[in-house]
Amino acid sequence: MPHDCPVRLYSNARLWSGQPASAGMPATQPPPVGAIAEQAGRIVALGGPEALQRRFPDAEVHDLDGRLVTPGLIDCHTHLVHEGNRADEIERRLAGESYQDIARSGGGIRATVTATRAASTSQLIASALPRLDALLADGLTTIEIKSGYGLDLATEVRMLQAARALAAVRHVTVVTSYLGAHVLPQEHANDATGYVERVCADYLPAIVAGGWADAFDAYGDALAFSPAQIERMFAAARTLGLPVKLHADQFSDQGGAALAARHGALSADHLEYTDAAGVTALAAAGTVAVLLPGAFHFLREPQRPPVAALRAAGVPMAVATDCNPGTSPLASLLVAMNLAAIDFGLSVEECLLGVTSVAARALGRQHDCGTLGVGLRCDLAVWNVARPAELVLGLGLKPLHCRIWQGRPEPAKSTG
Ligand SMILES: [Zn+2]
Fold first, then answer.
1. How many A from CA of 182 to the centre of ligand 1?
2. Whether 68 contacts 402, CB under 8 Å
3. Which end of the chain is more exposed for a tag (fewer CB within 10 A), N or C?
4. pLDDT > 90? residue 93
5. From the CA of 123, how far away is ligand 1's center (Å)?
6. pTM (2 d.p.)
């Protein structure tokens, strides 16, 4: 780090670190006042405001007026980049059709595939930006974005390129996942084996060679891919050095959690129907459970994920939006936290850890972001509240004062 790089001091702030409360400080209480020193985009010191001002007398001081500061929020599961609109599906679902019925009649994911294949990279970027801006307005600094609406190689690469390009037009870190196993593309409707072989032999090597993805993702479901097919693709991805993750057990118990654990997956996501053996396997593997209360809410699902069992087994739980055009058109991590608390029974602290340090772990980035720690990126969210619990309590209250991405402050009004 260059010694002449200026130091910024974010002072007079109530610091919630992104770590579980070690000193018994409940999230309903304002954390103690402290300061953060930043240099070259990284946190270089944490401590009392006076001590840090003595240590860095030439620092540019930003007085945060006693506001709450948390790590910048991390959305570890989104389908942000896509084209098309599925507004008609809500009418059909409200009239009683199930998501599975809609998908079988050509709607659902396949409807988005048709629209996305017809879109250029610049169209994909333009249509994703309003969704990204909505997330940024709630304090986001890192986002995972999946492909999976192309399913042919050219469109999948275009989606991943569009996702990466968003980081050039907004102050945000983008992590990408190649969701080659989302559904079977129409041209392989009766040839699942052929498609799986193509993913393993052609698409995955091309995606890895191009450096387009940080992980491989799959959708394990009766309407998507069988456990054996996913095993085959996971093995191919891991041979190429790509970490894996899985949409697991959303509509039925497919043994998805245990499958993800067997492959050392970064995360297993959804988990509504995961059984006790699946929970035990996740705990043993250290795989993160990513809970997606938006999809549960929009689909009016009857079964909640096994939160009490996950908690008892010590499985880390993340919370994400699953932002997508059909089953979770949700672009707010604050709302996702509220739903996780009210509908899934997570505690305030579990919700907050789920969009900070545990979300970072779900992306394999826990050494880079997700907590307030020396050496980590200075990604912060500054809030017009004093107590962490207030971030989980409300809906639509817009408490963000400003975002700080890699040390650079950006007022809330310019991100909305
Ligand atoms: Zn998803």
1. 9
2. no
3. N
4. no
5. 21
6. 0.96
